[in-house]
């Protein structure tokens, strides 16, 4: 199918996760003809398999102003998305069980408060009053009312409907394999030249696959792949009512309305961006479960229903890349946002503002700082091969 003959888009967004879909939505609402090109179905990557925690505790301090605005968007999807993801507000508690964790907790809370997060420190009794199921060995907790969770598996369905209503052309099961510059337009092609999509502007929103995607434009930005493990239990009677995390960052946990408990915290499994998530590591599975049960002792009665792995992207400095790509006209990138599900809707809205020629409400994150020049890239790859 050669769509170039019939269709030229104002913008082609490559990658239909929360970042790409939100950008596409706001561009289309502003009157642009927009295509989303997704090699799977919308939001089946990180945006559909994540833990759904909408939190400031786990968000990097400098991203807190973005996450606060995004949290409000998630809690009010009716106003801008038109379809929900069961976003639920719940208090967020980050916990300390050791003196070292207490110091960490206080530092993390102070850093986030500096960026506008309303986080209070609670002593043991106050923490137990918020979450009676906690292990009473808890020493201190950081409390934040701007917290909660969504059901991430609903994200694709919600965005699909919203994008269709906004007139976005959605190309699913359509991997982008080549990008050419043809007569002042960008032409995105699929395998065997089965599809060509022409657009004036390009948005690269490929999650962990941003590195090979950007390589199609001869831009080298290394993207690290984290293989995050999640565990869900069978339904059980209520054992917690807040979103729980731990000061050292190794646990995130909440109980959904149906009784199942979702346990994560960034424990790693085996996989990469070529193969996806391959398998869990038994030690990490046991470690994650032990920590969860230490925090909420009633989880001793829980039975694991399913484990899965999802791929999360990270830049060299662990900060997002959102903005215009250097040296190319009308090409933007969005991705590698820590706690990116929480911030996703607001980040996409900001990028759309920049593409539309408006001043974004908050600053973007210049990708130019991350570009590795060709010679340095060669040396780096040589070093990696010889190590
Ligand atoms: C297990 C797990 C748990 C997490 N938990 C949380 C959490 O609780 N809270 C939180 O805030 N964040 C969480 N995150 C992080 C969050 O999920 C991500 O930051 C966010 O979803 C990233 O969105 P994205 O659109 O950048 O990437 P993705 O959702 O990965 O979207 C990228 C899309 O690009 C497509 N693509 C790539 N290459 C091509 C190509 N060549 N052609 C066409 N399409 C292409 C992919 O198929 C994919 O759909 C978690 C992540 C994981 C993996």
UniProtKB/TrEMBL annotation:
Residues annotated as transmembrane: 6-28, 80-98
Pfam families: DAO
Stored SUPFAM superfamilies: FAD/NAD(P)-binding domain (SSF51905)
Record Gene3D superfamilies: D-Amino Acid Oxidase, subunit A, domain 2, FAD/NAD(P)-binding domain
GO terms of molecular function: oxidoreductase activity
GO CC term (a single one): cytoplasm
Domain FAD dependent oxidoreductase: 10-353
Protein name (database record): FAD dependent oxidoreductase
This protein's record includes keyword Transmembrane helix: yes
Domain of life per record: Bacteria
UniProt keyword terms in alphabetical order: Membrane, Oxidoreductase, Transmembrane, Transmembrane helix
Organism encoding this protein: Caballeronia udeis
